[in-house]
Amino acid sequence: MSEREGGVTFQGAPLTLVGPVLQAGDQAPDFDVIDGGLEAVNLASSAGKVRLISVVPSLDTGVCSEQTKRFAEEISGLPENVQVLTVSADLPFAQGRWCGAEEVEMTTLSDHRELSFANAYGVLIKELKLLTRAIFVVDAENKITYVEVVPEMTDHPDYDAALAAVGAAAG
Predict the structure, then answer these.
(1) Mean per-residue pLDDT over the chain, rounded
(2) Domain spans in the chain, listed from the N-terminal domain onward
(3) Which residues are catalytically annotated?
(4) Which of 98, 101, 133, 150 has the fewest CB atoms within 10 Å, measured from its CB?
């Protein structure tokens, strides 16, 4: 598995990312995660849809919470063929607790078991065993159309660019 030392920073300190560097135009890798009901979810689970995959280190942190709320607010304005997914290494029970406490209705997926998504999408932080902040837009044909791996973990992603990419992919 490839490693990228200094792939991201946390409060200025460099961290190592594990996995491939994905780019727009690449085929989206498959992954195995679980939902709040402990059911297996993979790329085929949302076949035929445009996916906005919002990746966060932990829902229980400020920026991750704000990022997830922002995309949850956008869901109702997106076309029917778009699915928004939030992926973290949080346990599914913690994700469910957070959604309930914050009154957020959104699909959250846990990568805690195998870090399958993290390794396939190149967002595993080696030192922390967490996922780094990133956005992926995958079209209905499973092609990646947009990638943003946020260089500083405490920064927000470019919400407008991600939503524009979703709009372009949804046609």
Answers:
(1) 97
(2) 13-170
(3) 64
(4) 101
Quick one: tokens of 51?
């996916």
How far is CA 158 from each of CA 15, 99, 167, rounded to the nearest angstrom? 21, 23, 14
Nearest residue to 113 via CA among 38, 61, 52, 44:
38
Q: What is residue 128's DSSP assignment?
A: T
Cβ–Cβ < 8 Å for 131, 54: no
pLDDT in tens, 142-168: 999 999 999 999 999 999 999 999 999
139 burial (CB, 10 Å; 0-12 / 13-18 / 19+) is: buried
Prediction pTM value = 0.96
CATH code for residues 13-170 = 3.40.30.10
What is the token pair recorded at 111?
A: 């990568």
Is residue 83 within 8 A of residue 49, CB to CB? The reply is yes
Q: For residues 43, 46, 49 and 51, what is the CA-based torsion angle, rounded to 10 degrees?
A: -60
Q: Return the structure tokens found at 141.
A: 């044909």
The two tokens of residue 66 are: 């704000």
Confidence band (pLDDT; 50, 70, 90) for 171? confident
Helix (H, G, I), strand (E, B) or coil at 1: coil
Distance separating alpha carbons of residues 92 and 35, to the nearest angstrom: 6
Q: For the chain, give the percent of residues with pLDDT over 90.
A: 99
